[in-house]
Fold each of these.
Amino acid sequence: MSNHSKKSIIIGASGLIGNQLVHLLLADTSFSKVTVFVRKTLPISNEKLHQIVLDFKQLEQYTTDFVGSVLFLCIGTTRKKTPNLADYRAIDYGISLRAANLAKSNGIEEVHLISAIGANSKSNIFYTKLKGEIEEDLIKIGFDSTYIYQPSMLIGTREESRPAELFFQKLSTVFDLLMVGNLKKYHSVSKEKLAKAMLSHHLKAKKGVHLLTFSDF
C-alpha cells in the first residue's frame, strides 16, 4: 500500500488509549483517513478525522463504514460505570467482536486489540475470563494479522474521576521496581507507550497471531 493512503478504524476512541491513538494516527502522514465510532463527538478538528456518532446497539447499520486498512479495538468499561455483568459483557465482548466481524466481512485483514494481562477464558474471575474469551473469539475470526496487547496497570489521566485507579497508579511507581525477569509483564505502562506500540506494530505488521506484553510494547 502506498504512502498517504492508509485508512484506519478505531473503536473506543474516547478512552485512555484510543484517544491517544487517534492523535498519533492523525499526525502520521501514512494515514489519509481515521474513522472513529463514538457515542459523542470528540473535541478534535482534523480533516483526516471521520467521526461516526452512534448507539452501538445499532452498529450493524454502519456496515458500509467499516472500510480501511486496519481495525483498532480499544473499547472497554468498568464495574463502576457498568455494574451489571451482562451489560459489561455486551460492551467489552459484544462491541469488540461485532466490530471485528464487520471489518473482516469488508476485507480488513489486520486487527489490534487491547486486552489485559492474565486474560484466560478458563479463569474464575469475571474480568480475566471475559478478556480471554474476547481474545479467543477474535482469533477465530481469522484476520491475516492479529495483534493482542496485554497491559497491566495503565498510566494516564482519564476524563472521568477514578480515585482508586489514581491511587494504584501512584503505587505502581514503587512496585514497578520489582517487576523484573518473569514479572516484567506486570510492569505498568503509560498510555503514550501503549498507543505508540500499536502504531509501531501496525507499520511493521506481520501475518499471524501476536500476543504482546510489556517487553513488546
Amino acid sequence: MEKKPLFQKWKTGLGKTRTGLLARLFASKDGINEAFYEELEEALILADAGATVTERLLDELQTAIKEQKISDRAGARKALAGLIAKAVTTRKPFSADTGAAVLLIVGVNGVGKTTSIGKLANSYREQGRKVMLAAADTFRAAAAEQLGEWAKRAEVAMVRHNEGADPAAVVFDAIASYKAKGCNLLLCDTAGRLHNKANLMNELGKIRRVIARELPDIPCETLLVLDAVTGQNAVAQARAFAEVCQLDGVILTKLDGTAKGGVVISICESLHVPVRFVGVGEAIDDLQPFNAELFAEALLASDGE
C-alpha cells in the first residue's frame, strides 16, 4: 500500500486523539510561548501519553526549538513528530517478518484478541504465508467457534479441542498439523484469565515448553493484545502480564475509537516493549503493522494534510 493512502488510514484512525486541544494547538498562528507549552502538556496528558513521558518530550522539544531556532508552531510540530517517532521506534527485529515463526497471543477477554488473530491470519495469508491457528483458549465458552469463523474468513487451517481441554495439548496437535501441512506461521490463541496469575503462568509456561520441544528451531514470540480505549489501564494490564510471562510485543486494538492514542508512547517508553500492530478501523485489513513515523505524523497532522 502506498504511503499516502496508508497515512490517510492512520490519520483517520487517530482522528479522535487529534481533535480538541492537540489540533487547535498546532493550527493556531500564535508563536511559541509559555501558553503553548502548557497547552501541549495538557493535550499530551489527555491523550494518555503519561505524565513522565510528557515531561520528557516537552524538555526535549524545548531543547530542539532553541538549538534549531524554531520560531513557529509548524516547525515545533515537525520537531515533536520526530521526537515521538524516535520514542516509539524499535530496533528489535520481528521474527514473523523474516521467516517461520510461532506467535503466542495473550490478553484478557474483551480486548479484541480473537479478532486480532483472525486479521493477522488473513494478512499473512495474503502475503503468501501458510498459516495455522491453534484454538488454545479452551476456557471461554465459544472461543473456538469464534476463532473458527475467522479461520474460514481468512481461509486458513485451525486445530481445536473440546471446551475445557488442556491448552498445551491443543498446541501440540496444532504443531503436528503445522508440520504435516508445511505451514510456516503458527498463531496460538490463549485464555485471558489474568485474575488468576498462577494458573495463567502455569498454562503459558506449559505451552511454551511444548513449542520449544516440538519446534526447537522456530522462534516463538508472545504478543499482548491491549485495548487502546482503556488508556493508562492498558499500561497497567501490560505490567501485570509482564509479571506472568515474557512479552515480546503489543497489539493495540481500537486505536480509532479513542482519544487516548498517546498511550502508544507510554507503552513503548514505560514497558520497553515494541508495539507491533495497531487497529485503525473495523475492516479485516485495518490491523496494520505499526509504523513509528506514520503514527507520529498522523497524531499531529492538521485536517488540511
Amino acid sequence: MSVTVTAKEEPPADADIAPLMRELGVKAVAAARVLALASTKVKNAALAWAAAALRAQTKSILAANERDLEEARAQGLSAPLLDRLTLDESRIAAMASALNDIIALPDPIGVVAAEWQRPNGLCIQRVVVPLGVIGMIYESRPNVTADAGALCLKSGNAVILRGGSESLHSNRAIHACFATGLATAGLPGECVQLVPTSDRAAVGCMLSGMTEYLDVLIPRGGKSLVARVQAEARVPVIGHLEGNCHVYIHEGAELSMARAIVLNAKLRRTGVCGAAETLLIDRAAATTYLAPIVRDLLAAGCEVRGDELVQEVDARVRAACEADWYREFLDAIIAVRVVEGLDAAIAHIRQYGSAHTEAIVTQDAAAAQRFLTEVDSAIVLHNASTQFADGGEFGMGAEIGISTARFHARGPVGVQQLTSYKYVVRGRGQVRP
C-alpha cells in the first residue's frame, strides 16, 4: 500500500481559538452525518488503510515522538509520565494491530437490539445508532490518538481529539495516518479531527463553548484534568477520576499465585490506570504471606508504605499516612495494610477506592463470590492481575478509557459503549384512540 502522511502545523500564537474550534465543530457534525450511514466495509477499509499508514510511517512517528520526549525531559516530566509518552516500534505495531482487531469486531450500528409487537399491531424495534460527535481530551499517551480515532470510526461517531501539549508532535503524526485512511476509503477527513493547537483555551471551548456540536466528552488523563471536565462540561461526560486499584490477599490465597499477581499488578507498568496502588493482606494470612510479598516488592525496586505490622517486616518499609490510602501513585510505590478479614477489606475499598478495579486472590470460592458481588467497582477480578483492566485484554480491540461512572458506560469503553439507540415503530395505519 502506498500512503502519504501530512500533519497540520499549529496556528499562530495570536490566533482566536473560538472560531477555530467552531469550525472543527461544524465540520465534525457534517462528517458525523456521513459516517453514521457508512457501510461496515467502508469503515473497515478506512481502518485498514490507517493501520497500513501507521506501519509505513513508523520512522516518522518515532522521530515526532523523540521531539516530544526531548521537550518532556527538558521540562522534568517524571519517569512514569515519560513511559506513557514513549513510543517504540513495538508500541506502534501494537497500535496498528489494535486497528485490525477493531476491524474484526462486529459493527454495532444498525443492529436491532430488541423487537416486539403490540396488541394493536405496531411493530417496535430498538436500533443501535452512533452517539454523534465525541470530544476527546487526553494527556500523555499518544496511542490514545489511534485507539480513540479507530473506536469512534468503527462506531460511526465523528471525533475531535485534543491531546496534551507534551505529545503534540506524536499525535499529529498518528492523526495524519487516519487522514490517509479516511481519504483512501472515500470518507470525510473531518470524521477524525485533531485540535491543531496546544493553547489551553481549546479545552475551555470544548467544555462550554461547543454544546451545539459535541454530543459527549471523554476525558482521559490526570485527576485534575478529569475533575475539571466533569465540573465544567456542558455536555454529558464519560470518564473516571483516577485508578486507586486494590489487590486483596485473602487467607485462602495460594502463596505463589499471590506473589506473582501482586508483582504484576503493581510493577508491570506503574503508569497505567489499572496498576495496583494498595495491597491489603488478611491478618489470618499475614504471618506467612506478608513478609515474602513485601520483600518481593522491595527487591523489585518498589517503595512500600505500610501500617505498623507491615513496617515490622523490613526496616525499608516507610510509614503510610492517611493520604496514602487514597493515592493513585502511578509510580513504583504501593501502600500496604493488614486487614481483619474479608469484611474489613471490602470496607477499606469502599472508603478509599475510586471504583476502578479491584482484585481478590483466594482459593475460597465463597469468599471470592462475596468480594465480586459486594465490591462496587467498574472491574472486579478473582485470581488475576489488575493490569487486565484494559479494553484490548477484554477482547474489545482497544478502549477509549475506563469509565468509573454508572451512567451509560462503565468499565472499558469500546465500540459498543460508544453507541446509543432509537426506537423504530412500524404500523399499518393505526391511530391512537
Amino acid sequence: MATRTLTMSHTELDRFSVITRVRERRLTQVEAARMQNLGVRQVQRLCVAVAQQGADGLVCRKRGRPSSRRFPDQFRRAIVTLISAHYSDFGPTLASEKLLERHKIKVSNETVRKLMIQAGIWQTRAQRKPKVQQPRLRRPCFGELIQIDGSDHRWFEDRAKPCVLLVFIDDATGQLVGMHFCHAESTFEYMNVTKRYLLEYGKPVAFYSDKHAVFRVNKAGGTRGEDITQFGRALHDLNIESICANSPAAKGRVERANGTLQDRLVKELRLAGISSIADGNTFLESFRRDYNARFGRTPASDHDAHRKLIKAERVRIDDIFSWQESRAVTRSLTLQYDKVVYLIKPGPENDKIAGQHVTVFDYPDGWFKIRYEVRELPYSVFDRLSQIRQADIVNNKRLGATLAMALESQLESNERRSKSCPSRPFPSASSMQ
C-alpha cells in the first residue's frame, strides 16, 4: 500500500492529539475545548471530521490556495514584464518606487520582491554570499566625523567614459553632505568639494578617509619636508583633524553608500538622460536632497559639532585650499615652479629677498600668486617648458591636464604621419618577382 505524506502545522498536530484522546474517551469535550481555547460545538465538529477523514479533517482548507486579495495573474504578469524591460537590475524598493512614479502602479515593496524572486530577477539574502562586517557605533553628533571617499565607476554607463564620484557622508546621520563628479581623485578636486562643504555646514571635528596619496604621505620625504600632504596642510590650517582608515571595512558607512549610489544613482542618471560630468554635477543636488530624505537618520545627540568659519578663515579660504610650496629666490630674482621660470619684478623692496624663500600659491582655476611673508610679489613668466619629457614626474593635481595634453599630442602626431606617409597598396606577387 502506497504511503502518503501529510503536512500539518504544530497547532494541528497538537489538536489531533487532543481530539484522539476525546474519541478514546480519555478526555471530555468540555476539557478539550478549554485546552484548545475552542467552543464545545467546534470540538464536536472536529471529532466528526477526524472520524470521517482521519488527520486530513484537521488540515486547514485554505492551505495551498491563492489569497482572495491576490492580484489577478494578468496584472502580475504585466508588472513582471515592466520590471524585466526597464528595471531588471533595480532592487525591489527602487523598482516599486519607479512603478508608482513612472507608471502610476501602486504595489507594495514586498509584493514586488516576491514577484521578482519568482521571475528570477532578484535573489534572496539566503541565496547571496554572506558578508562579515565588524559593527561600530555611529558617532552621536552631526558633524563629528565626515567619511570621504572617491568611487571610480561607469556612472553614465556606456553613454560616457568612467569617472570618479567624490562622496562626503556624515557618520552620525548617514546623510550625504558633499558629492562631485570629476575625472580623477586629485588634491584640487577634494579641495573644491571640501571648500563648498565648509561654506555650507561649517568645520567638522574630523575627516575620515583611506590612505590615498591625497590624504597621507605614503613614503618618507613628503611635501615641504613635514610629511604632510597639501590637503592635510589645508585641514591643519583650519584646525580640522584628518584620520586615515586602516581598511575599507573601517569606513563602512561611505563604502556602503558608494554601493547604494552605484545602484540608485546610475539608474537615476539613466532615467534623466544625463551623460556628462557637467550635467551630472547639476543633477546631484536634487538627488542628494532626495537621498537624505529617504535614508537620513536622526543623530543620537541634538548637538551640532560643526564650528562656524571665522571671518579671517572666510577671507583666506581660497588661499588655504590652494597648492602651496616654498621656493628659493635666486640672486637674479628668479624662481622655478612646475616647469616654469618666473621673474620677480626688481625694486628696492624686492631686491632684498634675493636668496630668501617665498611661498607659491597655485589655485585650482589656474590663478597663480607668489608671496613673501604677507606681501604679494609682482612677477612675469620668463621661460615655460611646454613639452613633457619621457618619464617625467607629474603631481596628481595636474594629472588630468597632463593626460589631455598627451592625448592631444598623440592625435597631432598620428595626423602628421598620415599626411606625410600616405597608405600604399600591398605589393602584388608579380611586382615582387
